[in-house]
Amino acid sequence: MSTTPSREDFDRYMVPNYAPQQVIPVRGAGSRLWDQEGREYIDFAGGIAVNALGHCHPVLVGALKEQADRLWHLSNVYTNEPALKLAKSLVERTFADKVYLCSSGGEANEAALKLARRYAHDTFGEHKDKIISFRQSFHGRTFFTVSVGGQPKYSQGFGPVPGGILHAEFNNLDQARELMGDDTCAVMVEPMQGEGGIVPATQEFLEGLRELCDEHEALLIFDEVQTGAGRTGKLYAYMHYGVIPDILTSAKSLGGGFPVAAMLTTDKVAKVFTLGTHGSTYGGNALASAVALAAVEHIDTPEVLEGVAKRHELIREHLETINRQHGVFQEIRGMGLLMGAQMTPDYEGRAKDILPLAIEEGMMALIAGPNVLRLAPSLVIPEEDISEGMARLERAIAKLVVKG
C-alpha cells in the first residue's frame, strides 16, 4: 500500500546534508509549481540555474518521450546517435573541437582538471602541475573540485587535500600574476562567480588571465556550469568577453533539468585523453543527450537569448523598486538571468531569511552565500510571472523588515 511522502520522511530517511524547505513541489508547468496541498509558487530558483526552459517544456518533454521509446543506455563500450548529435552541435556552436560527456558539473570539472594535469605532464613533464583558482569560487563536490574551489568550508574535515593548488583573489590580476610560473599547468575561473555571490569577472581580468596562460604555457579553464547554455544571454559567457578558453565545462542549463554535463576543449588538448585515461558510466547517455540537444537547439536562438537580456532589465527594475521601498539591498548585480542582490550591512547574513518568507508568499528564490539573494529563473519566464513573482518577493521582504 503506497503512502504520500511527507517532509518528515526526508529527516527520517535521507542523509542530513541538505535542509530543504518544508513544502514538497509535485507538479510544474513553465515558471510555476504546485505543492502537495495545491499551493502555487512562481519559480525564480530554477533548480539552481538548471531549469533553463522552465518546468515540463514541450520541446524537452517531446525529445525525452521520443528517445524513451528508442534507446536509453548503452555505456561507453558503444556510442549512440543522440550523443554524437549533441557533441557535433556543441562543437559547431563554440570554440571547441572535441566534447566529453558526463552527468554533472562536478564530473565535468573533475575531467577538466585531470585533462589539464595530463596535458601538462605529457607535454612538459611532471614538474608542471600547479593549478591556480580563486577565493570564493565553486567548482563542484568531488574532492579534487572542492580543493580547487576557493571555499575551504567544503573541503575541511575530509583529510589532506590534493597538493599543487593555489588561490588568488577573484578579479585581482596582480595576485594571479604573482602565483603564475613555469610550473603552472592551468588556471580555472568562473566568468561569473555563482556560489561566491554572483560576481561577474571584469574584462581586464579575463583578458589578463588569457595572456598569463599563453605566457606560461598553461591552460585556461572556464567553469561555465552555472553561466553556460544561455544563462547570461549568450550561449556561453565567454562570448560576452571575447576571451577563448582552452577548456570549458557546461552542465545545469545544458539539460534543462535532465542530468547531463559536458567538457569542451580543442584538438590540441584533447589528444592526451587517450583510451582508458578517463571515463563516465553514464556519460553520453542517450536519454540525457537527446534532451540536451533539444535544449541547446531551442536556447541558442535569437528569440530566447535576446529575451534573456530583456528579462534581466525587467527584473532589475523590480528589484530597484523593492529596494527604494525597503532599503535592504546594497548592490544588484549579475548577467542575464543569474542575478544577485547583496544585503546591506543592517541585514548582514540575512539573505537566507528571505527564502521561507518568499515561500509563504508563493515565490521560490535562492541565496549565494549568507549575504546575497540569488535569482535564476527560466530563460523564457513570461513577463506576467516576473511581475507577479516580484510582487510576492516584495511582500516577503516587507515581512523581513517588520521582523527587523
From TrEMBL:
<keyword id="KW-0963">Cytoplasm</keyword>
<dbReference type="Pfam" id="PF00202">
    <property type="entry name" value="Aminotran_3"/>
</dbReference>
<feature type="binding site">
    <location>
        <begin position="223"/>
        <end position="226"/>
    </location>
    <ligand>
        <name>pyridoxal 5'-phosphate</name>
    </ligand>
</feature>
<dbReference type="GO" id="GO:0006526">
    <property type="term" value="P:L-arginine biosynthetic process"/>
</dbReference>
<dbReference type="InterPro" id="IPR015424">
    <property type="entry name" value="PyrdxlP-dep_Trfase"/>
</dbReference>
<dbReference type="GO" id="GO:0003992">
    <property type="term" value="F:N2-acetyl-L-ornithine:2-oxoglutarate 5-aminotransferase activity"/>
</dbReference>
<feature type="binding site">
    <location>
        <position position="280"/>
    </location>
    <ligand>
        <name>N(2)-acetyl-L-ornithine</name>
    </ligand>
</feature>
<keyword id="KW-0055">Arginine biosynthesis</keyword>
<keyword id="KW-0663">Pyridoxal phosphate</keyword>
<dbReference type="InterPro" id="IPR017652">
    <property type="entry name" value="Ac/SucOrn_transaminase_bac"/>
</dbReference>
<dbReference type="GO" id="GO:0042802">
    <property type="term" value="F:identical protein binding"/>
</dbReference>
<keyword id="KW-0032">Aminotransferase</keyword>
<keyword id="KW-0028">Amino-acid biosynthesis</keyword>
<dbReference type="InterPro" id="IPR015421">
    <property type="entry name" value="PyrdxlP-dep_Trfase_major"/>
</dbReference>
<comment type="pathway">
    <text>Amino-acid biosynthesis; L-arginine biosynthesis; N(2)-acetyl-L-ornithine from L-glutamate: step 4/4.</text>
</comment>
<feature type="modified residue" description="N6-(pyridoxal phosphate)lysine">
    <location>
        <position position="252"/>
    </location>
</feature>
<dbReference type="InterPro" id="IPR049704">
    <property type="entry name" value="Aminotrans_3_PPA_site"/>
</dbReference>
<dbReference type="InterPro" id="IPR004636">
    <property type="entry name" value="AcOrn/SuccOrn_fam"/>
</dbReference>
<dbReference type="InterPro" id="IPR050103">
    <property type="entry name" value="Class-III_PLP-dep_AT"/>
</dbReference>
<feature type="binding site">
    <location>
        <position position="141"/>
    </location>
    <ligand>
        <name>N(2)-acetyl-L-ornithine</name>
    </ligand>
</feature>
<dbReference type="InterPro" id="IPR015422">
    <property type="entry name" value="PyrdxlP-dep_Trfase_small"/>
</dbReference>
<comment type="subunit">
    <text>Homodimer.</text>
</comment>
<protein>
    <recommendedName>
        <fullName>Acetylornithine aminotransferase</fullName>
        <ecNumber>2.6.1.11</ecNumber>
    </recommendedName>
</protein>
<feature type="binding site">
    <location>
        <position position="138"/>
    </location>
    <ligand>
        <name>pyridoxal 5'-phosphate</name>
    </ligand>
</feature>
<comment type="similarity">
    <text>Belongs to the class-III pyridoxal-phosphate-dependent aminotransferase family. ArgD subfamily.</text>
</comment>
<keyword id="KW-0808">Transferase</keyword>
<dbReference type="InterPro" id="IPR005814">
    <property type="entry name" value="Aminotrans_3"/>
</dbReference>
<feature type="binding site">
    <location>
        <position position="281"/>
    </location>
    <ligand>
        <name>pyridoxal 5'-phosphate</name>
    </ligand>
</feature>
<dbReference type="GO" id="GO:0005737">
    <property type="term" value="C:cytoplasm"/>
</dbReference>
<dbReference type="GO" id="GO:0030170">
    <property type="term" value="F:pyridoxal phosphate binding"/>
</dbReference>
